[in-house]
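Re: weekly structure request thread

Next one in the queue (315 aa):
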Amino acid sequence: MLNNQDFALSRAQCLGGSDIGAILGLSKWRSPVDVWMEKTGRTIHSLNSLPLRFGRFAESFIASEYTLATNTQLVIHESALIHPQYDYLQGHIDRFVCTGTLFDDLGQLRASKVLECKTANAFKQSEWGDTGTDQVPLPYLVQCLWYLMLTNLEQADLAVLLGNTDFRIYEIHRDWELEEMLLDKAVQFWEKHVQEDRSPPAKTELDLRTLFPKSTSKQVEASPESCDLIKKLKELNNQIEHYEQEVSFIKQNIMTQMQEAETLTYQGQILATWKSPKPSRRLDTKKLEKEHPEIIEAYQMSVANSRRLVIKDLS
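Done, posted below.
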């Protein structure tokens, strides 16, 4: 089995199933810029976070629940499957539905299905449709379609454990039109951005902070369009300030009605609560620095602050 370091290195040398949703802009957690940073060696994707460790831990349990629910046999194949035309398009697949050996004497895949195992928060149940359908979050849908493309199989089952209490199985069938689109987007991304070392367009403020983390003394002349955008930004900020004042006024009225009451109700339904949270403890760093400067100095570390955009008033 690949260790985390080996797996991280292999990820950086190819596009895998978990990258496809990100480069299409479907992921909530990673953008095309994040994938580009990883594939060009600018960052290393962490494979040791608690959610990822739990996902790996739960994978075998979900697979075993799948075998109980479907009465099928599963085969693990740890090596990546590689696209026959583009060796940088690969996929590590959780399980194969297969009886006996996975490959025949000619090296052809004998599996009937691909199995992808997932865990999800119970609060995310609304993102999942009825069991047996293909109504799964889009990043997972394209990941399964990616694996069908690599394996040339017709169906992928996605088994998910929602909130540790709700086990479901979804069926994703091959879609040649979508498959062609995924292949085209992946090849374009790799050849245009990774091989040519050109970043994809930034989609968020975080993307821009990632691409340009440090400033220099360089100065650029604003375009007329930038001047118009700055003017519009100021107008929007003024509107936000107005609404914040209105929100504060409404809160004051509600608090005035409640006074010392903890709960506000209407016809038996709770509309609002106003109570103190549980007491918490925090370190008084100012007092510690004043009374024991030698202690705090030993535990201080410099933190590189990110760049901050400040809009100046125009004369």
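The domain at 53-98+106-183 is CATH 3.90.320.10 (Lambda Exonuclease; Chain A). The beta strands are 74-75, 81-82, 90-91, 95-97, 113-120, 155-162, 166-173, 263-266, 269-273.
Next request, please.
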